Amino acid sequence: xxxxxxxxxxAAERTRLRIVGLCAHAELTVSDLSEILGQSQPRxxxxxxxxxEAGLLERHQEGSWAYYRLADGASAAxxxxxxxxxxxxxxxxxxxxxxxxxxxxxQAWAVKAAAYFHRHATDWDRIRALHIDQARVDAALKRLFxxxxxxxxxxxxxxxxxxxxxxGDEVEAAIGIDRSRDMLLVARANIHRAGLRHCQVRxxxxxxxxxxxxxxxAVTFHMVLHYAEDPxxxxxxxxxxxxxxxxxxxxxxxxxxxxxxREQHAHRWLGFADSRIETFLTEAGLVPSAPERxxxxxxxxxxxxxxRPANAAASSTAAQTAG
Length: 323
Description:
This protein is of the alpha/beta class and 323 residues long. The chain contains 14 helices and 10 strands.
């Protein structure tokens, strides 16, 4: 009762209720919320502190930045937060304007990333090699596929088609998708030069994959998730296209404090903790496996993977029949 009452008191203020609604749609910083709400950052910070203390929001620290999202834990406050969002009137003009401004903020993120990829398409492989030991990562990927072969592969955020070149000989067919036309031009040239006739690339959004469910044996995110606006949503969409027994493999940075990667290289997230990726995989209906860490300087790379249960399709069909 005390937890529920504290949550009700925290939410019983117009701006704080608006913040709860916004954080149900995206993980946002103080500056994001300040821009959307038209209020000062100190004032927004005070509201956020109360909402976090009441358990309605969760705070995730990345370097000098903090991100806020709707509480998703199994608690009275978390349940209250989701109930409040469900009760918010869709036709309210203030809430409607908040969501329009949120869309504008999201578009600004996308424009910044697109401009970066446009500028660096031709030298993308060189830039990526500045932060990771590419040979070690490639070898680890090939080991994973050697242990559990796949017929077909979907590489999300394929960039210059590097993963297709590394794993092309391990699969019967592969598709790489990317939003950047400039990257895809380079990728097509690379896979053609490598003689990978069974590989192709196409323009698509990771949040809206143009494929039916249960159509891929393996899906990869190779140094892509730290650019994603909604990593959990991207993982859920990738899991949707996996066949029962299929695997999702994520290659990305462990948490770090290289703040310059935000401004200079358009990174949205400064790496991911194992627990966070495990939560994303579990929520997407996948069974996580032990991650593989490639310790290094200046940054550590981790390979996370999750498997779609072999009985997933049967369970889904049974549930639909029962319904």
